[in-house]
Amino acid sequence: MSASKPPRRSGLRLPVVDFLDTSVFVEILDVPFMNDHRAEVLAEMDARRNAGVRFVLPTATVVETGNHVFQIKEGEARRRCAGVFMALLRRTALGQAPWVLHERTWDGPFLGSLCDGGSTGMDLTEHAVCQQLGTGDLSIVAERDLYASRAQAEVRIWTLEATMGTWAELP
């Protein structure tokens, strides 16, 4: 889980931006039964922040995390986690979280990129046939690709999942 060093361009280091995958965000949020690596993730987040890495919270991560929270079986644990989740979202909306939103619209070109599989080299159908990335993960890849096309930065996806890790860095 260590942070990689940013590449150099013309002798200058590019800033590093990590998109937070759901597998990381549920650890931060402390979702029951999805939080086995929470201490390591929080320590890694501090290390990355201290190294100057900036974080982006993708749309799919919010939606997928919310689904996980709402599926917590025990009512009091679900209430507690939902309250913390809502507070984190409010802090994000106010610019008070350690991450920002990638404020973009779901427009035709974005959906086209999602259907094309972003920079994975496989379209959505092929991912389904091979049981690789689901639509949520593909949208994180497509959102990362869109962000990277507009930013002078090394843009990655911070994930704990092996399959998603295959596409965590741009080709």
Structural overview:
- The chain has helices at about 20-30, 40-50, 60-70, 75-95, 110-115, 125-130, 135-150, 160-165, and strands at about 10, 10-15, 15-20, 55, 100, 155-160.
- Helix 5 crosses helix 7 (about 135-150).
- The protein has one domain: 3-Layer(aba) Sandwich (Rossmann fold), CATH 3.40.50.1010.
- It is built from eight helices and six strands.
- A hairpin with a 2-residue loop joins strand 1 (about 10) and strand 2 (about 10-15).
- The strands form two sheets. It has a four-stranded parallel β-sheet.
Characterize this entry briefly.
This protein has 171 residues and is an alpha/beta fold.
Properties at a glance:
4-stranded parallel beta sheet; globular; 171 residues; 51% helix; 8 helices; alpha/beta; disordered N terminus; two-stranded antiparallel ribbon; Rossmann fold; 12% strand
Separation of the first and last Cα atoms? 20 Å
Number of helices: 8
CATH homologous group name: 5'-nuclease
Radius of gyration: 16 Å
| DSSP helix fraction | 40-55%
Topology, number of strands = 6
CATH topology: Rossmann fold
